């Protein structure tokens, strides 16, 4: 029984039965209120940063905590996932981690993640000596440079979690969220899950550097990589390595594009899956002595050391932020990187197509969205959708915008290029644009983007004109309705006693 399995895992140290409402009915204008039992933070409000909502059975929702006054509840993230393997949530509040797992369609359990999983070291890969500078830089937006990742797992890895499939799905989503947070465009790089398969007969030796050699030389792993056209391979393990993960080599290297991630910290505050995937593109630790810009980043903020996904800390229990280093992106008012030194985002962009071409995947039809990721309040932005691949035109374009990423309003535009009015709403931090494209032979694709609404941002070309949103909704903005939902806005509403 799933309940017995879950409560027997040392991954968790306390459990509470909860109710989970529908996502569409729980969120209000892109905000979800969560009250975590046992955490003295009261109501926590998460603001949407990304959402892909198909139905209640298939969605992904990511939100950032609206900071509270208390120091202990000021920073957090929530990742919600619904798939054929059930619903799962990963909740990060400061150093605390919680997960929600589905036991049955009406029974959910909230579990506190045991802090002891952080006793391990994070990543075996120390300083790397290879210098990856010299590859020409180019943008991947002119074609499809999605990278396909095969997730393999050992028997002990499968037994260490509620659903290995949903762990893989969540790990991929968190990685793609970190790419988006780091201003790496959807048309530049996203990781696609090409398969989740058991690697029978692979038994962890307990020595992580030995196991990575066994993986690289595993005939079945190589065959499955080829058969699934996977550019990179991550093996989930669950052994007492003393390390959460490593890669065969800091890439890009076709022959050695393999990594190991312990299920304990694959998702969660350490983001080990996203970390090892970063290594496979040549991203390095913040303290790696190799020259160049491909380093993670850390900095002091108040009493805390902030660190990005490749950030190294001598006190590794401290949480990471879900960002790859990028001097063009601010976090709490501070750059998340340093030009020429700490810029994982640049490295990831640069090698995206190299890694994507490790195994060729022919996609007949691909669309990419071009345009700003930031917008001034009450002004407008230009967006253009590019089509490539083997689908014949003419194409039909349907544009939409949304405050919450779930309820969409048609933009009355029918070309590949649109000018979008930014909703003039007080307190609006961002909104979504989506375009659905259909080719003349009936193939359809959809792409969406979160546009961050700010008055200033790094690399801003033209200053904002200083329009002030009125506190009343501007009905002339004609694109958005912001209160479409019933006001039942607690995702977790009550605790069963
Ligand atoms: Zn590492």
Global geometry: globular
- pLDDT < 50 stretches: 472-497
Beta fraction of the residues?
25-35%
The bound ligands are: zinc ion
- Kindly report how far apart the N and C termini lie: 21 Å
Beta strands, count: 27
Question: Percent range for helical residues?
Answer: 10-25%
Judged by helices, strands and strand pairing, the structural class is alpha+beta
How can the largest sheet be summarized?
A: 9 strands, antiparallel
Strand order of the largest sheet: 2-3-4-5-6-7-8-1-27
Oligomer: single chain
Integer average pLDDT? 88
Total helical elements:
8
Radius of gyration equals: 22 Å
Question: Key features?
Answer:
497 residues; alpha+beta; 9-stranded antiparallel beta sheet; 6-stranded mixed beta sheet; 8 helices; 15% helix; globular; disordered C terminus; binds zinc ion
Descriptive report:
This protein is α+β, with helices and mostly antiparallel strands and 497 residues long. 15% of the residues lie in helices and 34% in strands. Helix 4 (164-181) crosses helix 7 (272-279). The longest helix has 18 residues, at 164-181. Zinc ion is lined by residues 123, 125, 275, 279, 285.
Brief overview, please?
By secondary structure, the protein is an alpha+beta fold. Helix content is 15%, strand content 34%.
Which secondary structure elements does this structure contain, and how are they paired or packed?
Elements: H1 2-8, E1 12-20, H2 23-26, E2 31-35, E3 43-55, E4 58-65, E5 76-83, E6 86-93, E7 96-104, E8 107-113, E9 121-123, E10 147-153, H3 155-159, H4 164-181, E11 191-198, H5 208-216, H6 219-227, E12 232-237, E13 243-247, E14 258-262, H7 272-279, E15 298-301, E16 304-307, E17 330-331, E18 334-335, H8 344-356, E19 365-371, E20 374-375, E21 380-389, E22 396-402, E23 409-410, E24 417-421, E25 430-438, E26 444-453, E27 492-495
Parallel strand pairs: 9-13, 10-11, 10-12, 12-14, 20-26
Antiparallel strand pairs: 1-8, 1-27, 2-3, 3-4, 4-5, 5-6, 6-7, 7-8, 13-14, 15-16, 17-18, 19-21, 21-24, 22-23, 22-25, 25-26
Helix pairs in contact: 4-7
The structure holds zinc ion.
Zinc ion binds next to helix 7.
């Amino acid at each position: 029984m799933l309940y017995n399995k879950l409560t027997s895992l040392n991954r968790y140290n306390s459990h509470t039965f909860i109710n989970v409402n529908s996502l569409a009915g729980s969120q209000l204008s892109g905000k979800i209120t969560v009250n975590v039992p046992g955490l003295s933070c009261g109501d926590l409000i998460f603001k949407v940063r990304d959402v892909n909502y198909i139905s209640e059975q298939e969605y992904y929702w990511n939100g950032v905590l609206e900071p509270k006054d208390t120091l202990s509840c000021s920073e957090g993230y929530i990742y919600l996932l619904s798939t054929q393997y059930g619903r799962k949530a990963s909740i990060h509040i400061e150093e605390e981690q919680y997960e929600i797992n589905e036991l049955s369609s009406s029974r959910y359990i909230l579990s506190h993640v045991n802090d002891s999983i952080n006793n391990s070291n994070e990543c075996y890969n120390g300083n790397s000596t290879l210098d990856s500078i010299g590859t020409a830089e180019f943008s991947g937006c002119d074609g499809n440079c999605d990278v396909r990742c095969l997730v393999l797992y050992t028997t002990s890895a499968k037994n260490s979690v509620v659903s290995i499939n949903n762990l893989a799905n969540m790990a991929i989503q968190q990685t793609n969220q970190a790419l988006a947070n780091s201003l790496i465009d959807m048309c530049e790089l996203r990781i696609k899950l090409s398969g989740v398969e058991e690697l029978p007969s692979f038994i962890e030796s307990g020595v992580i550097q030995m196991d990575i050699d066994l993986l690289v030389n595993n005939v079945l792993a190589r065959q499955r990589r080829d058969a699934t056209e996977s550019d990179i391979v991550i093996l989930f393990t669950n052994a007492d390595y003393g390390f959460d993960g490593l890669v065969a080599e800091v890439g890009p290297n076709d022959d050695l594009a393999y990594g190991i991630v312990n299920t304990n910290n694959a998702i969660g505050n350490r983001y080990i899956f996203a970390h090892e995937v970063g290594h496979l593109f040549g991203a390095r630790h913040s303290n790696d002595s190799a020259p160049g810009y491909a380093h993670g980043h850390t900095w002091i903020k108040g009493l805390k050391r902030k660190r990005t996904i490749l950030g190294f800390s001598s006190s590794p229990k401290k949480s990471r932020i879900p960002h790859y280093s990028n001097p063009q992106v601010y976090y709490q008012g501070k750059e998340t990187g340093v030009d020429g030194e700490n810029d994982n985002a640049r490295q990831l962009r640069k090698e995206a197509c190299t890694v994507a071409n490790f195994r060729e995947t022919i996609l007949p039809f691909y669309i990419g969205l071009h345009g700003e990721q930031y917008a001034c309040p009450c002004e407008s932005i230009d967006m253009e959708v590019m089509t490539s691949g083997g689908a014949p035109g003419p194409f039909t374009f349907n544009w939409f915008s949304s405050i919450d990423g779930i309820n969409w309003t048609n933009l009355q535009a029918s070309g590949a290029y649109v000018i979008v009015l930014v909703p003039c709403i007080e307190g609006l931090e961002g909104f979504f644009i989506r375009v659905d494209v259909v080719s003349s032979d009936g193939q359809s694709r959809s792409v969406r983007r979160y546009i961050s609404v700010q008055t200033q941002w790094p690399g801003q070309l033209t200053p904002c004109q200083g329009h002030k949103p009125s506190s009343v909704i501007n009905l002339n903005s004609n694109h958005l309705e912001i209160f479409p939902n019933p006001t039942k806005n607690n995702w977790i509403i009550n605790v069963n006693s």
